[in-house]
Design a protein that fits this description.
The complex is a heterotetramer of chains A (195), B (94), C (1003) and D (423). Chain A is 19% helix and 33% strand. Chain A has four helices and eleven strands, in the order ββαβββαββαβββαβ. Chain A has two domains: 83 residues, Probable tRNA modification gtpase trme, domain 1 (Gyrase A, domain 2, 2-Layer Sandwich), CATH 3.30.1360; 75 residues, Alpha-Beta Plaits, CATH 3.30.70. By secondary structure, chain C is α+β, with helices and mostly antiparallel strands. Chain C has 23 helices and 54 strands. The longest helix of chain C is centred in the middle third of the chain and has 18 residues. Chain C is elongated. The longest helix of chain D is centred in the N-terminal third of the chain and has 21 residues. Chain D is 29% helix and 28% strand. In chain D, strand 9 and strand 10 form a beta hairpin. The chains are: A alpha+beta (195), B alpha+beta (94), C alpha+beta (1003), D alpha/beta (423). The interface between C and D is large, with 120 and 115 residues. Strand 34 of chain C pairs antiparallel with strand 16 of chain D. The complex binds flavin-adenine dinucleotide, nicotinamide-adenine-dinucleotide (NAD), flavin mononucleotide and zinc ion. Flavin mononucleotide (FMN) sits at the interface of chains D and C. Zinc ion binds next to loops of chain B.
């Protein structure tokens, strides 16, 4: 039996922990490895059943509005009408969800390899993000726990606000280096470390 | 311009892709006449004033919406959901 | 040399730090200034009066204003890649080591030879270019050459400063901001507005162009709530920034007002220091979306036009006051004030208070108010009422003026009353509200007869004017209207406003209404637009020639088109035209202001995009390609290997070797860039059947099919294979370049056209890495490494799709062929892409597997006659490309109806063929097919699309579109490329040059 | 009317410039004309001029709703070229080039036609081949074209970033040496003056508010002038209103056309000394730039996509064009934008113009100019005048009919399909 090799991230060589000398960095960038990411799309009439199926598989249900539902390693993020991005540690999430949600209830698409998660945290995290992303990061408009779908120029980004000063950014894999280049350049102004 | 996506909320129009006049309706699959397709593909009313038009929220949820916008002032008066989810989104908005 | 530094004391030099000197260089000479100085105030303090030359006549120009409306004092700042031409000295904050130089003058500003342009004077009147330089009439193209020559000379003489030759080393940034209320301007009105909003809990952004907030308050002698105006302003700012919901941005000009209250403001983050700190941006563009806005942008003083009015030394009255009060820099030893309104008298008083001699006050009005009279007495100036300055005299700079009797009603100039020595004339012709931002939005300004000025007009978006910007010139009124505007704005932003606490002003109360006098006409040369050298006579000439609409006046004379956009001159020019036409000013109209408010660095608008325009898109195997000698090729945003060049090998040698190796053995190519779309749902098959021209409904599970997608107008849109993974689940592939637009095409049809279809699509381009294994030995390679798949022809037939494992990696394998050989596409999760690539390479070692790039890929498909991007050029139909068999006539699909149009079925269309070089010469890209010689080629009968050397046929070949090509196989033509000086004899052949029966790929 | 020359300028200057007369008369409308041209833009004025000068039809009025030249003729980036790929376009625009070359003399008005060269930059070898293909087509049609390599491009445009490390490295370019610029306003004024001299009435501030119809045939126009309504009759009415085509044709009862109106923005920087000699276009985006005689960099890029009749642009296009401009010329980053403005484009479904008889009896239509109608001005006027005078198109505009959409003969230079904002 051959072991499955490790997934290789395009940021493997870039997101190396590093703390610059001198100035106190005001944000920390890092890559957060994501073991399993699946998109689920319900049909308009099957929302409730899909919620149930998700809950059967992951142990938790999608939250209301634009909030992510969190339970242990599971994170269910709203990603459009009837659509969710579900993250979990287990590798066969896609298979289990597909088994629970047949074509009559919805569609299940594996995206584990399709996104890279960049995490940013620190006092100036929102400032750095706002320098390239045109959504309102004020906590009153974007509360902790909420998810936003947006883009940075050509790069689609799903943003999960995990704390007042921390965000997980789900970025398309092929663009991950371009995105890292942008965010690290933007963060130079306030000083950053890589965690 | 700021467009209100029925699902994502208000965003810069830069997040959306313009898809043109919402009045252009594709003939049914049963209709194979050249004339009907001709009108759908090429003829536009191009009004000066209220224009119902399609935008795709490609930088967000990737759903289409119908925007009513004045072509003289760029003022947007209505953003409506369209597509399979339209009914639910409308209901949610209420 | 008449300006000097005053004795700095309380109330003189309020904006500068007398204790800290700063050294700067102007035109190569070193000078001293004080911290807080602007370059202009420092030049004044150093007695420098000529700082620039005008655009057309190269006349000496001095400093005219104290702000961003400056028309005259343009200099070049800094050096090398940081060189910045046309910078207004009035806006530059002095820093130690600043380097500035004058421009548009040779050899120097003091003595400029180009001033000969003045000699023909009247011949260089408005519009003279249009009337001459046409040159002699000559044959053919040569007719234009005379103008072409003149133009070169004119272009060299025109222009202002010189741009940098090196790249700008600095960075630019952007910030996206949102607020309930944007307040523009931090004068009394703006501060009052911001305060009310801040106290109401609204989120507020307050932008101030200058480094110091306070607007007119910074030099006003008035008291507010018992506090000196500038102290009150400073206190207010301190209070404001203590609110978490308020952001005060100084050095930030709101430049542009776009739809839905979107603004672009530019913050000059590091222009007041020698170079930006590490990581710091030079400027930052703030893209602000405000629920509502208060414009408290003040008013701009305007001059009175009179003969000689462009002499250095003639300045705006308020500017003279500000230099004296704020910077302690006296622009002259003997100041005369020339005015048509009371504000000039107050300026005279405030100037005199700083210790500068105000020799006279000249007012066109026969009588003035008591306040003015009192201020006049305080200033100890000689007073000339019912008088005008009829001439400014002096060699190069102002040395004296002529004062004559003046009848403000008739405009008649009477006897000369006095000639008075003076080196600074402070002029006030009234105030024009700064409504540039609202004009940008298309709001039509309205005329106010009393103020003799245009006011902003009625809002068409969510903004409110306050203070001098809307004609409320007094300080008390500014405070009141500021609060009122904020209240109205907050209600729009749905924030309940608190109660305004309006401070009380103790100070001058004057009537700002000026006498309607814009020009003192004596027949001598006087200037309207100081930068563009537009004279009052030019305006009258335009009138005579029929360019009477303001917009024609502007374009014919170029009035208001200079870098200041006529901030201090437009109204005057307009008034002169109105008088010539004998119409009231409002009937002549006014030109439209356009964004930006002041000239804005292109780098700042590009913001974070300066330097890296677009992100790279990379496949998981990118690093391997680069490390293994691949030259990379841009394909949209993607970067792909062109060929893997061995040492000493050219790209052509490399791709021929690679292609040969594939046909003989086996090769690997990274196809991860292909667009991949997951299509699922009970109606997925039906959906595909509608968007593809060939049938998909009956595609069995475990099979792939090549599909053609048309646009609704019948032309080809994209192609690719779609794999049926299970009953309701398909994996669609698209061309690399077409992925995005195919996705949108599908989304459109699902949302808008057939919303009742239960289909979900998702882009999975980034999810899957893809490797094509091609060549007769491809099966052996696969067999050596794949688990769980029977790779025999039966187990995995042509177009079959299977799932398996390669070295622990789950893969999808489809037996597809672009090359015409037996081949497989193997997909796996992108994170394992490199692992898969390594496994396949390893498995292929014994078969001499080679990696191959885009060039070889394309060679193989050209030999095979498979179409790709160059053939799918948006102007071809399936019929043109010999793919008519893939157009179903059993069903309707997107493009079916319009494909039936007559023109698509006519003879004479360009059709796909291939050509072979018959004389061994290379067929270069971009050729045309002709019958004639290189010298006399005749008409184009078609063109090449995809060209290569064919290792299989051992000659140069190309796919081509040829008129009626299908019927012309065997014909001899020439592939001509006159632009590359090539002319190759070719034979037209069928595009299916290799294995036309397809035996090799079907196996 | 004074003939313009260096001599007349000098003699007039000596007399204090008092004797100059209006460039064109402020005509009063007559009750009727042989031909009325709606729209006092470049195309309308050129049409009137050629009707009078080539076809001897002088009883003509040009009816313009605003000031003369207030439309796109007065707000374009002034690029004049004929580097087209498709035969119909190539022939037509080359005719225009020929007229441009003699225009200043013909009109006795310096339109400052400046054949400084138009350079399209290429960023991949594939793009070079595409350009070669177009260049060869031009050569075969007798139009000058040169393919330049990277060094030649660099020599031509010193500030250009030809570094291999650029995000989209320049590999070469296609140059049409005889293409260039002309002075936008001068073209309008020159044609107006020329037409006026031949007897054409130019009616400014006169808006067409409706059409007079008799038995389904157009027989004149209704106008509003200085707030007053007046009917003016005409044997034939030509419509050349560019961005306003949709609204004006609606007045004639034509509700739908293969045209959509959108904003195109243009930009000008502050004046600087000569810094780029040619018109240069960026090949990895959409950006064209040249330097005006005054010294301003005049540039533009994409349209604002959505339908609009407001001559006011949006911020994303600012960001896009400036970033492309500074990517191409990193030494321009500190130069400053002086002004931007918008014009309304009559975007046709295939990106090519319409010059045709009809679509209503008695009417002729000239429209669909998209980004590129300035360079077409002389040929468009010339062909439209022919079409009106002869009641049928000239060979040069025979392909530019409305029928082409019905028959499947779009003239689609970019192959972008029936999506106007892709052209
Ligand atoms: C920003 C920009 C950049 C451009 N750049 C280039 C370029 O570089 N090269 C190029 O070749 N082309 C360019 N163009 C395109 C070119 O300017 C236009 O295609 C061309 O000017 C259109 O023809 P015109 O001159 O007749 O139009 P216009 O000048 O717009 O004339 C139409 C006239 O009709 C009048 N009108 C409208 N309705 C009525 C009515 N009801 N009654 C009476 N009159 C009416 C309008 O007021 C207007 O004056 C550009 C356009 C823009 C906006
Ligand atoms: N000196 C005089 O004789 C005179 C004449 C008229 C008015 N006033 C005085 O002017 C005051 C009126 O107050 P106010 O608040 O209306 O005007 P103000 O002139 O005090 O303030 C306007 C402020 O707006 C800023 N500004 C303008 N455009 C801007 C932009 N686009 N972006 C950023 N900042 C911008 C200016 O730099 C200035 O600081 C009163 O004190 C009144 O007495 C004085
Ligand atoms: C080629 C060209 C060059 C221009 N150069 C300048 C310029 O140097 N200064 C200026 O203020 N405007 C310039 N303009 C813009 C005009 O001022 C004006 O904005 C344009 O004609 C559109 O008119 P509008 O802004 O009144 O709508 C230029 C316009 C064109 C077409
Ligand atoms: Zn959305």
């Amino acid at each position: 039996m051959v072991n499955t090799p490790d997934k290789v991230s395009p940021l493997a060589d870039l997101a190396m922990p590093n703390r610059p000398a001198g100035r106190q960095p005001q944000v920390e960038l890092s890559e957060r490895l994501c073991d399993s990411l699946v998109q689920v799309q319900a049909w308009p009439g099957t929302m409730a059943k899909v919620h149930k199926a998700i809950s059967d598989v992951t142990g938790t249900r999608p939250a209301k509005g634009h909030a992510a539902a969190l339970k242990g390693p599971v994170c269910i993020m709203p990603a459009g009408p009837g659509r969710y991005l579900i993250e979990d540690e287990t590798e066969n999430l896609e298979i289990r969800l597909r088994a629970a949600i047949g074509a009559h209830l919805g569609a299940v698409t594996g995206l584990t390899h399709g996104r890279v998660v960049v995490a940013i945290r620190g006092e100036k995290a929102a400032w750095v993000l706002a320098s390239g992303i045109a959504i309102n990061f004020d906590p009153s408009a974007f509360p902790v726990g909420d998810v936003r779908l947006t883009h940075h120029h050509d790069i689609g980004v799903t943003i999960h606000r995990t704390a007042e000063d921390a965000f997980d950014l789900y970025v398309f894999t092929s663009f991950a280096r371009g995105f890292w280049h942008w965010i690290s350049t933007a963060a130079e102004e306030v000083g950053y470390s890589v965690g | 311009m700021r467009i209100t996506c029925p699902w994502c909320g208000e965003r810069d129009h830069q997040e959306f892709t313009y898809r043109g006049d919402a009045a252009a309706k594709r003939p049914a699959m049963s209709d194979e006449s050249i004339e009907a397709h001709q009108a759908y593909v090429y003829d536009r009313e191009n009004p000066d004033g209220a224009h119902r038009e399609l935008w795709n929220h490609t930088g967000g949820c990737r759903k289409h919406l119908v925007v009513t916008r004045n072509t003289l002032t760029h003022q947007i008066t209505l953003c409506e959901p369209i597509g399979p989810w339209a009914k639910r989104l409308k209901a949610a908005a209420k | 040399m008449s300006g000097f530094r005053l004795n700095l004391r309380d109330g003189v030099g309020t904006a500068i730090d007398s204790a800290s000197t700063v050294t700067f260089i102007f035109d190569g000479k070193s000078y001293e200034g004080l911290r807080g100085d602007s370059l202009a105030s420092a030049l004044i303090a150093n007695g420098i009066s000529i700082v620039a030359r005008s655009f057309k006549y190269h006349r000496p120009r001095g400093i005219f204003t104290a702000g961003s409306e400056e028309p005259s004092a343009l200099v070049t700042l800094r050096k090398g890649g940081r060189t910045e031409p046309n910078i207004r000295a009035t806006e530059v904050e002095l820093y130690d080591g600043l380097i500035a130089s004058s421009q548009n003058a040779w050899p120097s500003v003091d003595f400029d030879l180009m001033a000969v342009n003045q000699l023909p004077g009247k011949a260089f009147s408005a519009g003279f270019y249009y009337k001459t330089f046409m040159g002699p009439k000559m044959a053919g193209n040569r007719t234009t050459q005379f103008w072409w020559l003149c133009e070169q000379l004119i272009r060299r003489a025109a222009g202002l400063g010189k741009g940098a030759e090196l790249p700008d080393p600095d960075r630019y940034g952007r910030m996206n901001a949102f607020c309930d209320l944007l307040v523009v301007g931090s004068g009394a009105a703006g501060l009052a507005a911001a305060e009310l909003a801040a106290n109401s809990g609204a989120s507020v952004i307050l932008c101030e162009e200058r480094a110091l907030a306070g607007g007119a308050l910074t030099s006003a002698p008035d008291f507010i709530d018992g506090q000196l105006a500038r102290d009150w302003a400073a206190d207010k700012c301190r209070q404001l920034v203590s609110h978490a919901n308020v952001r005060l941005l100084t050095r930030t000009t709101v430049q542009s007002y776009f739809d839905d209250n979107t603004f672009m403001a530019v913050e000059r983050v590091a222009d007041h220091v020698p170079t930006p700190a590490k990581g710091q941006v030079r400027q930052r563009a703030w893209n602000i979306r405000a629920k509502s806005a208060v414009f408290a942008t003040g008013a701009l003083e305007r001059p009175i036009v009179f003969p000689g009015n462009d002499k250095p030394g003639v300045m705006l009255a308020d500017a003279v006051r500000r230099y004296a009060v704020e910077y302690g820099a006296a622009p002259g030893k003997q100041v005369v004030v020339f005015t048509n309104n009371d504000s000039g008298w107050l300026a005279a008083r405030d100037i005199a208070r700083t210790g500068v001699v105000v020799a006279a006050i000249v007012d066109v009005r026969p009588d003035v108010s008591d306040v003015a009279r009192g201020a006049g007495e305080d200033s100890r100036a000689k007073v000339f009422l019912g008088s005008a300055v009829t001439r400014a005299k002096g060699f190069r700079t102002l040395s004296a003026i002529e004062i004559s009797a003046y009848n403000e009603l008739t405009g008649k100039v009477g006897d000369t009353r006095d000639t008075m020595g003076c080196d600074c004339l402070a002029v006030s012709g009234g105030w024009s509200p700064a409504f540039h931002l609202t004009s940008q939005q298309g709001t039509k300004p309205v005329w106010d007869a009393e103020l003799q000025a245009f006011l902003p007009g009625n809002p068409t978006q969510k903004w409110h004017g306050a203070g001098a910007m809307c004609g409320e010139m007094g300080l008390q009124a500014a405070l009141e209207t500021g609060a009122a505007a904020a209240e109205a704005a907050l209600s729009e932003a749905a924030v309940p406003a608190g109660v305004a606490d309006i401070p009380v002003v103790d100070g001058d109360r004057i009537d700002f209404a000026p006498a309607p006098v814009f020009e003192i006409y004596t027949g001598k040369k006087s200037f309207v637009d100081l930068q563009h050298d537009v004279t009052a006579d030019d305006v009258r000439l335009a009138h005579r020639e029929g360019f009477v609409s303001v917009e024609h006046l502007k374009r014919y004379t170029t009035m208001g088109m200079a870098t200041d956009q006529g901030k201090t001159s437009n109204l005057t020019g307009l008034a002169i035209m109105a008088r010539a036409r004998d119409l009231p000013i409002p009937e002549v109209g006014t030109t439209r202001f356009r964004p930006p408010y002041t000239p804005t660095a292109l780098g700042a608008i590009a913001g974070e995009l300066y330097g890296h325009l677009k992100p790279d898109r990379l496949t998981p195997m990118h690093d391997w390609h680069v490390a293994n000698g691949a030259s990379m090729y841009a394909n949209g945003l993607w970067s792909r290997p062109e060929s893997y060049n061995r040492p000493g090998e050219s790209v052509e040698q490399a791709y021929i070797r690679e292609a040969r190796a594939v046909r003989a053995g086996v090769g690997l190519v990274d196809v991860s860039t292909l667009g991949k779309i997951d299509v699922q749902g009970p109606d997925a098959a039906e959906f595909l059947n509608r968007v593809y021209s060939n049938g998909f409904a009956k595609l069995p599970v475990g099979k792939a099919r090549y599909g053609l997608m048309l646009r609704e107008d019948g032309f080809l849109f994209d192609d690719g294979t779609t794999w049926r993974l299970d009953e309701h689940r398909f994996l669609m592939t698209t061309t690399t370049a077409g992925a995005g637009r195919v996705m949108e095409h599908l989304e459109y049809h699902l949302d808008v056209v057939w919303p009742d279809l239960k289909v979900a699509i998702a882009s999975v381009t980034d999810e899957w890495a893809g490797v094509a294994v091609a060549g007769p030995k491809s099966r052996e390679v696969l067999k050596a490494c794949i688990k769980g798949v029977d790779v025999s022809d039966k187990g995995l037939p042509f177009m079959g799709v299977r799932e398996g494992m390669i070295n622990g990696v789950r893969v999808l394998v489809a037996r597809l062929s672009f090359s015409g050989e037996r081949a497989y596409e193997v997909y796996c999760g992108a994170g394992w892409g490199q692992a898969l690539w390594d496994s396949l390479l390893k498995a292929g070692e014994t078969f001499d597997v080679v990696p191959y790039g885009l060039e070889a890929l394309s060679t193989l498909r050209i030999e095979k006659g498979h179409v790709a991007g160059p053939e799918l050029n948006g102007r071809t139909t399936p019929l043109d490309l010999g793919l008519g068999g893939m157009v179903s006539n059993k069903k309707n699909f997107v493009g079916a109806a319009l494909l039936k149009r007559s023109a698509f079925h006519e003879a004479g269309r360009l059709q796909l063929v291939a050509i072979k070089s018959t004389d061994g010469q290379k067929i270069v890209g971009g050729g045309h097919l002709v019958k004639g010689s290189l010298e006399n080629p005749g008409e184009s009968e078609g063109h090449t699309t995809s060209t290569c050397f064919s290792p299989e046929l051992n000659c140069y070949i190309s796919l081509a579109m040829l008129k009626q090509g299908t019927a012309r196989h065997g014909e001899r033509l020439f592939a001509t490329s006159p632009i590359r000086n090539r002319h190759v004899a070719v034979e037209v052949v069928s595009p299916h040059m290799v294995d036309p029966e397809g035996g090799r790929m079907r196996g | 009317m004074t003939r313009y020359s260096a001599f007349s300028i000098l003699t007039n200057a000596l007399r204090g410039n008092r004797d100059w007369t209006p460039a064109w008369r402020k005509a009063e409308p007559k009750a009727g004309y042989d031909v009325i041209i709606v729209g006092g833009g470049g195309h309308g004025l050129a049409t009137a001029y050629y009707l009078a000068s080539v076809h001897g039809v002088t009883n003509v009025a040009v009816v313009e709703k605003g000031y003369l030249g207030s439309g796109n003729i007065g707000r374009n980036t002034t690029i004049v070229r004929s580097n087209y790929r498709l035969p119909a376009n190539s022939d037509f625009y080359e005719k225009s080039m020929q007229l441009w070359r003699g225009l200043s003399h013909e009109l006795n008005y310096n339109v400052m036609f400046s054949p400084r060269g138009v350079l399209n930059l290429a960023h991949t070898p594939g793009q070079m081949d595409t350009y070669a293909e177009r260049g060869n087509q031009m050569r075969l049609n007798g139009i000058g074209a040169e393919l330049l390599d990277r060094d030649q491009v660099a020599r031509l445009n010193p500030g250009l970033d030809v570094n291999g490390s650029a995000r989209f490295p320049v590999v070469g370019g296609l140059l049409q040496p005889e293409a260039g610029n002309a002075r936008h306003d001068a073209v309008a004024w020159g044609y107006a003056r020329g037409a006026d001299k031949l007897g054409v009435d130019i009616l400014e501030n006169t808006e067409v508010t409706g059409f007079l119809k008799e038995g389904g045939k157009i027989v004149g126009v209704q106008t509003r002038r200085n707030g007053e309504q007046a009917d003016i009759r005409a044997q034939k009415v030509g419509v050349a209103v560019a961005g306003s085509t949709g609204r004006v044709m609606k007045l004639a009862g034509v509700d739908r056309l293969p045209i959509e109106s959108t904003v195109l923005q243009a930009f000008v920087s502050e004046s600087i000394k000569p810094i780029i000699p040619t018109v240069t276009t960026f090949g990895a985006g959409h950006l064209y730039v040249s330097q005006s005689d005054k010294g301003g960099l005049v540039f533009g890029g994409n349209i604002d996509y959505y339908n609009s009749y407001a001559s006011r642009g949006n911020l994303p296009v600012w960001e896009e064009v400036t970033s492309e401009l500074v990517a191409m010329f990193p030494n321009f980053a500190r130069l400053r934008l002086l002004r931007s403005w918008g014009g309304i484009m009559d975007m046709s479904m295939d990106g090519s113009p319409i010059i045709t008889t009809g679509p209503v009896d008695g009417m002729f239509l000239n429209a669909g100019w998209c980004y590129g109608g300035f360079k077409a001005t002389p040929a468009s006027g010339w062909c439209f005048a022919h079409t009106i005078a002869q009641d049928k198109p000239h060979d040069l505009n025979a392909a530019f009919t409305l029928d082409r959409f019905k028959d499947g003969r779009p003239i689609d230079e970019l192959g972008a399909g029936p999506t106007p904002w892709y052209h």
